[in-house]
Design brief:
By secondary structure, the chain is mostly helical. It has helices spanning 7-29, 38-46, 50-70, 79-105, 128-150, 164-195, 211-233, 237-250, 258-289; strands at residues 201-202, 209-210. A two-stranded parallel sheet has the order 1-2. The radius of gyration is 21 Å and the shape is flat.
């Protein structure tokens, strides 16, 4: 980071710290594959992997706490806000990961308009998207309030020949990309659970969507969100329409099945909405700080 040479650089220091915290927060939350569907939770329980997953969660939480506390620098100043930021992120990560497992296991309430008396399986995890987005919002807002209230600034261990504004862009874009890659899958799954379009997963191709095909579709969704966010960031709006049209053309034969068509449309629209939102944020970062 370039040492603050004027007032503007000093004012940007808290923003840089917040984007760095956001980047570490996203990396820590999505460094491990967390269950996003009740069948994944049940499979982990069946294989007795939940204890192992919780142990990995504890290790990830310890690393997150250390990274969050060290972000302003290893000096002894501003100890209280550092501890608060680390505690907020530690608590938030446990709440998000463990709460996500509880959320995806829950069925829809009896009076919910989303409940299907024939297929209750599809109505589990209807609050997964809200849980994912809400936890991110609350934790990052709380961190911003702590930084603002205590006037926390960055005490860099390594001085880089890069302007503070560009470092803000790098950290912010990194956080958004990590969220789109992993967090976006949870949000899209939550939307599909809510409207009941998620198809049955089976180990065999007959009678449902094969697990191999499902995992392939998940990876396609990640790449799709990345490309859409990139097109949005560089204002290549025509390419967005071309990508969505090409995806529909490839799946045109399967879209004759109404069940698959609804699954395809809800997943595509939710994924596109996330990617466009991330692309708009990237545009704002580049315009404001680059």
């Amino acid at each position: 980071m370039v040492p603050p040479g004027d007032v503007d650089e000093r004012l940007l220091a808290p923003v840089l710290l917040w984007t760095q915290v956001a980047c570490v927060w996203m990396l820590a939350n999505y460094a491990l594959q967390d269950p996003s569907d009740h069948r994944e939770v049940e499979e982990k329980k069946h294989l007795r992997e939940m204890r192992k997953w919780k142990q990995h969660l504890g290790i990830r939480a310890a690393l997150l706490t250390g990274a969050a506390a060290a972000l302003p620098g290893f000096g002894t100043t501003q100890l209280v806000p550092r501890v608060l930021i680390a505690a907020l992120m530690l608590f938030g990560m446990f709440i998000m990961a463990l709460g996500r497992v509880r959320v995806v296991e829950r069925r829809a309430p009896a009076r919910s308009p989303f409940r299907d008396p024939v297929d209750l399986r599809a109505r589990r995890g209807i609050w997964l998207a809200e849980w994912e987005l809400g936890t991110h919002f609350v934790v990052l807002l709380a961190v911003a309030l702590v930084i603002g209230a205590f006037g926390v600034t960055v005490e860099p261990l390594l001085v880089l020949p890069v302007r503070t504004g560009r470092l803000i862009c790098f950290a912010g874009i990194c956080a958004l990309v990590v969220f789109l890659a992993r967090g976006g899958a949870h949000v899209v799954r939550g939307f599909m659970n809510k409207v009941g379009t998620l198809p049955t997963m089976t180990r065999q191709p007959e009678g449902g969507v094969d697990w191999v095909e499902y995992n392939r579709g998940r990876m396609i969704g990640v790449l799709e969100r990345m490309l859409l966010a990139l097109f949005m960031a560089v204002q290549a709006y025509q390419a967005i329409g071309l990508l969505i049209a090409a995806k529909g053309l490839i799946r045109s034969k399967e879209l004759e099945d109404r069940g698959f068509a609804e699954y395809f449309l809800v997943g595509t629209l939710a994924s596109t909405l996330l990617a466009i939102g991330a692309g708009v944020l990237i545009q704002l970062l580049l315009h404001s700080f680059w």
